User: Fold this.
Amino acid sequence: MKILAIDTGFSSCKVYYVNEQGIPQFDKYASIIGKLENVVEVNDENMFFFNGTPYYLFETALRLPNKQILDMSSYAGLREAAPVFLSYLLKKYGAGFDKIVIGLSLAMVDQAEDFLEYVSSQLMMDKDMFMLLPQGTSSKACITTYGLDPRDSTRRNDVQSRAYLACNIGSNTADFFTVINNTTSSQATRGFENAGLVQVAYNLIDKIRKDTGKEINLQKAKTIVDTGIYTSRGRSVDYSATIKTLTLEYFARFFDLIEQNFGEQLEIMDNLFICGGGAVLLKKYLHELTPMIEKHFPVDYLLLPNDLAEFYDVVGYAILAEKILNRR
Assistant:
């Protein structure tokens, strides 16, 4: 059974599959789409056509004016963008897969049927070719199978908790779930929209606007968060110190969010497991954040992946899909 798992995230698209040699493959692309206007007949190798409309994808799209970048900060934006990304990725990775597995945040789970219907119809593919799984809780399958390193199944025993609260911090959403006796609990499973790292990007947009009087789009801001450098008209400004401050402030709010919504669960759980892109930044600034974290619990109460924290959902998609298909 060949499975292609794709996580069309707000910040990046993650792709996971096992190649013909049995080696897991992990790929990532910036989730940026720009719609071209006033196209002339030139040999533009950057163009990607989807259903007759020309686009620039990924980092190339950042070379377009703000107004031409698709806004993916809502379900409607994600719905519009997902088929374009998927069309490109399916052409890149080929058609030799038995099932394509995609996901949707717990915060948008009510839109699951609409999302799957729209994606399959836009791609003109049979809906049965796809499987849609929940983001966040799918991470649990990766945790159980690989522990703290999705490349190494021998690390599965690194997570020995009988009961833990887990959170996948994405760019737009933060998805929470609890695991009890190695089973995802039917309660305390919840997604929070606009609770992800997008808060750092929004605050950076405000800061750059105040400093320069210029307006940048959300996708450009996310790139600056990653690199620390804002470039405009050949001038580069180091915003790494500002980004660090904004990130530390974000995590202070994030742990308050946990306390307010899951305080009682923390009392009876063994650990808090955090994955997703947020885990990468949390690990980067863990030393500076330790005093704040320890107001809530000891820092060793936290479990963080050693590597590939952003891939826990997409690896989980593949694991769950294989189990589901094998039962049929």
Observations:
- Residues 3-138+311-327 form a domain with the Nucleotidyltransferase; domain 5 fold (CATH 3.30.420.40).
- The chain is about 40% helix and 25% strand.
